[in-house]
Design a protein that fits this description.
The protein has four helices and four strands. It is of the alpha+beta class. The protein has a four-stranded antiparallel sheet. The radius of gyration is 19 Å and the shape is elongated. It binds nickel (II) ion.
């Protein structure tokens, strides 16, 4: 961590009110930590824009395991990309539906392609890629 810098920010008071109520709802006890998190979030987003950058993320999938061959298809895809998929959590939500969370790591473009392929597989009801970071380059 670098040394601490203090900055002054001029901001419209109505906008600041909205910001304060937003961060209060999210559980922040001070603006500084909320600002820092916003900045970090933006930096992580920008990292993902470079196809060659090393990223970490999770892919969430919800699907009906009764759909013919879907389980096999999803498992085949995961084996195909075993270098990028570090771990998979499977939860049987109810009689029909399964939830899977995959931890993915690799080049941004590769990870996005894997996520898109999984999410767009026929029978997957809902899917989302959540992007995050290893934290190594984030103060
Ligand atoms: Ni299941």
């Amino acid at each position: 961590m670098g040394e601490l810098s203090r900055i002054g920010v001029a901001i419209d008071s109505d906008l600041l009110d909205k910001f304060d109520s937003l961060i209060a709802r999210r559980g922040y006890t001070n603006r500084s930590e909320a600002f820092r998190d916003l900045i970090r979030d933006e930096l992580v987003e920008r990292t993902w824009e470079a196809p060659d950058s090393n990223v970490v993320g999770t892919v969430t999938l919800v699907y009906d395991h009764h759909v013919r061959l879907l389980n096999e298809k999803l498992t085949d895809l995961q084996h195909e990309h075993h270098r990028s998929i570090l771990s998979t959590l499977h939860v049987h939500l109810d009689h029909d539906n399964c939830l899977e969370v995959l931890v993915v790591r690799g080049k941004s473009a590769t990870v996005r392609r894997i996520a898109d392929t999984l999410i767009s597989t026929k029978g997957v009801k809902h899917g989302r890629l959540t992007i995050t970071t290893s934290g190594a380059e984030l103060p």
